[in-house]
Amino acid sequence: YKETSHPTMMFQYSFAAFAILISSANAFAPIPSRSFSAQKGLSAIPETLQALDTITQVTQSSDILLSKVSPEDYGDVLKSVVIVLLVGGGLIPAAIAANKSMIGTLGGKRAGGDDGSNYVAESGASGPALPGQALLFASEKIPLVDIIAIMGRIKGYESIADWKNLPSTQQSANVFWLPRALYKENIRKRKFMGWPVDPQTGEPIGGAELEKAEKGRISKNNAEIGDAALDAVFDSWAWGASIATPDKVENTLALYQNGNSFNVKEFTGAASRGRAVTGLGALSFVVIQVVAYGTLFIAPALRVFLDIDIGLGQMGACDGICK
To answer: What span, in angstroms and rounded, lies between the C-alpha atoms of 114 and 65?
Structure first.
């Protein structure tokens, strides 16, 4: 007998001893007859030898399987499981929520207020959509009239908000952050000051017929304005952020608004650039997730179980040479 402390061999010997015990018990179990028969007792010996041969084959097969998994592999697998339990408990649910929010943002779905209420999907405006709307990835149609209703209420960055009396200035006097929800509320409450005109032709934006059909409706107090249009204007200077600052608003407005003139092409370009920043941020977030999950979970599992090394960290080890 050779003493060994390897857990795998101890398991095999224990299993063999248990199987022999069971076979022996079956071989020497009492027979229905009350009288003892030597011939029947001796016939149980070949069955015991056959059971021992089967146990030997099973033990050899387990040797082949278990020899491919070293104690180091058990440690690597255990380490990966612990990381999944510790990190996955908070990271994975948060990542799912963040991805869901990201997909909704890229699809143009944004709350009308901080609590997600008062969202206006359809203002009832007639006429054409904003030229170049496809570049903004909006979830609803953006009527040109809704943009006109907004720009007709803006005369410089001072008209958008009381910059000295914002929620941020109550915390710090020099922090001028205009929240998206407050901007929407202010625009809807402001008075419509006139239909903007094309800077090159001087004609009403959208044409005289559109002005005649819609001016009366959008000139009313608290006129319905779609959130998709309000978000497009806000994103032109906020670049996808949830707050706007007076310097960015002033600089961006100067690109497409001058007095009562409104350059639709320049506005679409500014709004598209703002949405592009959101797209780049989403792409960066996806890349970070791929690297993180690949390093923590995918790469170690491929090394341990399939002997495939795709890089991404040092966790896990191949059995021999990695493919």
So the answer is: 58
